[in-house]
């Protein structure tokens, strides 16, 4: 088996009823040449909370989803997946991915992985929270490795 594409699925782990906070989980995967999807890891994620210094009415008006965009989510996903000590051209923890493939009996290299297409996917749980114009953008291919 050989990887032909890489990707990450971002899911909503939990969200507050007042729409002020949410927790996200990430599942990084590979699409293999036989059509199967291989889960590489599920140990990353983050939480967000929107705060205010205003009174009670200001708190009720805050809605983190009204301020969340596909671009901000992708940027956060990059930050979560890429350790701080990595800088271009090491724009991902390729060594860690090579090790994760080896656990599954797949031999590959950093250079091979770096050349593969990478997609960012969002679950329905996230898309239904986003403003409609942002949810519609989730079907547009995202070059998550591009500077931005």
Polypeptide structure, described:
The protein is an alpha+beta fold and 148 residues long. It has one domain. The protein is 29% helix and 29% strand. It contains six helices and four strands. The chain has helices spanning 56-61, 70-81, 94-103, 110-114, 124-127, 132-137; strands spanning 3-15, 21-32, 37-49, 118-122. It has a four-stranded mixed sheet. β2 and β3 (37-49) form a beta hairpin. Mean pLDDT is 82; it is low at 144-148.
Question: Helices, strands, pairings?
Answer:
Elements: E1 3-15, E2 21-32, E3 37-49, H1 56-61, H2 70-81, H3 94-103, H4 110-114, E4 118-122, H5 124-127, H6 132-137
Parallel strand pairs: 1-4
Antiparallel strand pairs: 1-2, 2-3
Distance between the termini: 33 Å
Strand order of the largest sheet: 3-2-1-4
Number of helices: 6
Largest sheet: 4 strands, mixed
Overall, the morphology is: elongated
Q: Based on DSSP secondary structure assignment, what is the total number of beta strands?
A: 4
Structural class: alpha+beta
Number of domains: 1
Uncertain runs are 144-148
Instruction: Classify the beta-strand content into a percent band.
Output: 25-35%
The helix/strand series, from N terminus to C terminus, equals EEEHHHHEHH
What's a concise summary of this model?
The protein is built from six helices and four strands. It is of the alpha+beta class and 148 residues long.
